[in-house]
Design goal:
Muconolactone_d_Isoase; single chain; Muconolactone Delta-isomerase; Dimeric_a/b-barrel; alpha+beta; isomerase; 4-stranded antiparallel β-sheet; 2 helices; 93 residues
Length: 93
């Protein structure tokens, strides 16, 4: 299944810089692991916000949840998920 995942980072503004940088580094590393596993397909920044839009692929919503919960900033993220279905125009004859 494919999922469109919107995340916004709500890390408190008073978070120390060293903690913030450590979390960012961990996010990058985990995102690379999810890419290598074929779960994270695409990732876009949202200009002007501390937010992303990602295209994920997982066997089911539970697998997606586990992948998202594995992100270091998980507990500071506002996340919305939309399951995607193939449009008939996308199917090849």
């Amino acid at each position: 299944m494919e999922f469109l995942v919107r995340t916004e980072n709500l890390l408190p503004p008073d978070t120390p810089d060293d903690v913030r940088e450590s979390l960012r580094k961990g996010e990058r590393e985990r995102a690379l692991q999810l890419r290598e596993a074929g779960i994270l397909k695409r990732l876009w920044r949202v200009p002007g916000r501390n937010a992303t839009i990602g295209l994920y692929e997982a066997a089911d919503p539970a697998e997606l949840h586990d992948a998202l919960a594995s992100l270091p900033m998980w507990k500071w993220m506002d996340i919305t998920v939309e399951a995607l279905a193939t449009h008939p125009q996308e199917k090849t004859p």
